[in-house]
Amino acid sequence: MHPVTCGLEVHQQLDTRKLFCSCRSQLVEGQGARFVRRLRPTQSELGEIDRAALAQAERGMRFTYQAPPDVSCLVEADEEPPHAADAEAVQAALIVSALLGCQVMDEVHFMRKIVIDGSNTSGFQRTALVAVDGALEVNGRRIGIASLCLEEDAARKVDAKDREVTYRLDRLGIPLIEIATAPDMHDPEEVREVAQRLGSILRSTRMVKRGLGTIREDLNISVPGGARVEIKGVQDLGLLPTYVRTEMERQHALIEIKRLLRERGATPVPPAVRDVTALLRDSRSKVLRSALTKGGKALCAPLPLFAGTLRSADGRLRLGAEMAQHARSRGVAGIFHSDELPGYGITAEEVQALRAELRLGERDAFVLCADMADRAEPALLAALARANQALVGVPEETRDPLPDGTSVYSRPLPGAGRMYPETDVPPILIEPERLAGIRAALPELPEARIARLVGEYAINEQQARQLVRDGYDELFEEVGRGKGMAAVAARTFLSTYPELQKEGVDLEALSDAKVREAFAALSAGRFAKEALPSVLREMARGADVEGAMAALGLEAMDQGDAVHILDAIIAERAEFVREKGEGAVGPLMGVAMKELRGKVDGKAAADLLRERVRVFLEG
User: Fold this and answer.
1) Cβ distance 198 to 96 under 8 Å?
2) Quick one: how far is CA 404 from the chain centroid?
3) Per-residue pLDDT at 599
């Protein structure tokens, strides 16, 4: 039995017009017109209401939308029917399907997927199944491709406060290819390798967007005795193994909690709460005082036989954190539970008073929430419902990734009840001749591209493989064509970039256009290659190449000026040069480069220094 089973869903934005209109697919800063909506769940064609949609509706959210011109229109506002699906986006989906060896549908039909978290103005996302049953090979293992879909991206969240969320419609409708693998991965590192491989294949089409946020991964993870949990929207490939490991640890802890509760004979907790405001009215806890001063209430509920599972002494079992995440989905800041009290200003005497009021024994726990009554009670009931789930093990759910590699509860895992047919978009007939033409002219696959880079640019295979894996191969070819530029470009993307990132430089600010600009100046002899990391650092901070060079004082130096500087260095150390002869070149090179770095190429500086030393010795 495998220690973990993982599936992966990769969502890649296409570099085309929007899927159902002719608006540009580009993110902007302008807000444009504004309008407000509330969304409600609807039944699927089977007459079911999806549990995830129902949970979202219970939050009672209000949604404000910003509609910038040129990148959104009446289609995004759901005031006009969708246009026919973008032909270029459909073509891209068919090309990727062929690259993955998938079986393409005879007809592509769009469906509506109910989504009422506000990210779609219509309350649903349009998605179409394009192909099934493909595969890719990673490290000699076959990883199945269950499905490939073409869908529209969601609106972009720009603000959230209380029960209102603001979205911008620039991202809504950008075409996405969604690739879902089979649950064939059983090692955290393998998940990352599969994601990198799929990213390379997608980029090989030259029809996808690049940069932060243009590709996202959803992880489906389960362990023996656990359940399928989806971590949705991971953007950092490097963290994929960490998310898998932390979810494995979380599920194992929940399985242990279930075992403990069953051993103790715990039974489901009734959905009842008790008002304990009178007991805590004089509490020194800032949270309690703040809530009660505003007219709120302190509500409490017993958890018989749950002591030690809400937060164990070693910190491994943390059911209380799970309950708090469910409570926050009802609009409160959090909850208190007895495994963490006394603390947070709540005294031991107040804890004893609460235990006496609830008639709790040593192995019993309690949970406490203070807020306005219309929030505190639903939040506490949500926490109790989560506690009851612990009796049956790991619940199926969707979770949001956090930057540290952990995740938090988002909503229940959606089911088949959220899908129903899209009646406004006609089906697309896929003729066999069209597929034959695509297969006859497929783009270069990563393996062939690696071999060609090695042959054409005289870099080693490891460098070529890493360039392709990290997605720098296309830009590398653009900037590495000039004389001597291939080695510089490879070093830049594979060594300089990681070094800049360690320094905290925002590499996302280094657009392809900026990199091309920097290399064009380098090729023109405007500065020496040794200065390129410094130039890129300045450009990442917002400067153009001219501004970066000015800030660094890098205007290229002519040979006459360089000779003058080198002669001065040699004259200052004349005795040393006479003693060492041409052996003085090495020690003097460090001094020379302090004066010439970024203004004269390193090799040229070394050759010129050697020449000036000879002239000095002969004179």
Assistant:
1) no
2) 12
3) 58
Give me the pLDDT at residue 546, please.
82
Cα separations (Å) of 468 from 430, 459, 476?
Answer: 31, 13, 10
Rounded to 5°, the CA angle 560-561-565 comes to 120
Structure tokens at 420: 């129903």
β-sheet bridge partners, residue 13: 176
Strand partners, 336: 368
- Whole-number pLDDT of residue 417: 64
C-alpha closest to that of 468 among 484, 483, 496, 449: 449
> What is the distance between the alpha carbons of residues 254 and 587, in angstroms, rounded to a whole number?
64
Identify whether the C-beta of residue 77 lies closer than 8 Å to the C-beta of residue 67: yes
Contacts of 62 (CB under 8 A, 6+ apart): 36, 38, 163, 164, 165
pLDDT 10s digits, 61-101:
889 999 999 999 999 999 999 999 999 999 999 999 999 99
Residue 398 has, within 13 A of its CA and on its CB side, a CA count of 16
Alpha-helix residue ranges (DSSP H) falling in 211-368: 240-264, 277-280, 286-293, 319-328, 348-358
What does the pLDDT read at residue 198?
Answer: 96
Helix (H) or strand (E) holding 489: helix 485-491
Q: What pLDDT was estimated at residue 46?
A: 61
Residue with tokens 């993307």: 493
Distance between CA atoms of residues 537 and 542, nearest Å: 9
Tokens at 129, concatenated: 């199944």
> CA 217 to CA 387: how far, in whole Å?
29
How confident is the model at residue 406, as a pLDDT? Answer: 96
Q: Which helix or strand (DSSP H or E) is residue 467 part of?
A: helix 461-470
The total number of residues shown for the chain amounts to 619
Per the rule left: phi > 0, alpha: psi between -120 and 50, beta: everything else, 47 is left
Q: Strands 428-429, 103-104: parallel, antiparallel or unpaired by DSSP? A: unpaired
DSSP, collapsed to helix, strand or coil, labels residue 321 as helix
CA distances in angstroms from 86 to 172, 428, 441, listed in the order given = 14, 11, 21
Residue spans of the chain under pLDDT 50: none
